[in-house]
Amino acid sequence: MTAADDLAMRRALALAAEAASANEIPVGAVVLDADGRIVAEGRNHREATHDPTGHAEVDVLRRAAASVGSWNLEGHTLVVTLEPCIMCAGAILQARIGRVVFGAWDDKAGAAGSMYDVLRDRRLPYRAEVVGGVEADAATALLRAFFEQRR
Ligand SMILES: [Zn+2]
């Protein structure tokens, strides 16, 4: 974990809170370049866009690729408030993201170490370094408040 990761996670948490305000499950994400600068921000927008792939990670990968001008995001870091699901882990590898920092563990659908470990599966041609549990309490609190309010 670097100082840039820490700042990025705080930004991702703010984006997650923004999602909650828009009645979306609160998950936020940012992509950092090799120097730790934020190149793109994203959040969950599945309800508003009626898009089953509208997770924060897919959103931020699309924006980062557009900003960089390439689908290949080698050397970049993706920072997200919740452990990526199988779909997002797949998208992260497709983008050649080399490093993933995430907040809360998702023991029901996580694919970065809890349920599956897609990002570090040695059978795949590309893998990513994973740092999990960063600011996990803050990410979990956002999710818990969101679902409690909906009950
Ligand atoms: Zn996902």
UniProtKB/TrEMBL annotation:
One of its GO terms (biological process) is tRNA wobble adenosine to inosine editing. Signal peptide: none annotated. The active site is at E57 (proton donor). Its EC number is 3.5.4.33. It catalyses: adenosine(34) in tRNA + H2O + H(+) = inosine(34) in tRNA + NH4(+). Residues 3-126 form the CMP/dCMP-type deaminase domain. Keywords: Hydrolase, Metal-binding, tRNA processing, Zinc. Its cofactor is Zn(2+). Transmembrane segments: none annotated. The keyword NAD does not apply. The keyword Hydrolase applies. One of its GO terms (molecular function) is tRNA-specific adenosine-34 deaminase activity. Binds 1 zinc ion per subunit. It holds the Pfam family dCMP_cyt_deam_1. Belongs to the cytidine and deoxycytidylate deaminase family. ADAT2 subfamily. PANTHER family: CYTOSINE DEAMINASE FAMILY MEMBER, TRNA-SPECIFIC ADENOSINE DEAMINASE. Catalyzes the deamination of adenosine to inosine at the wobble position 34 of tRNA(Arg2). Homodimer. NCBIfam families: PRK10860.1. This is tRNA-specific adenosine deaminase. It comes from Microbacterium oxydans. The lineage of its organism: Bacteria, Bacillati, Actinomycetota, Actinomycetes, Micrococcales.
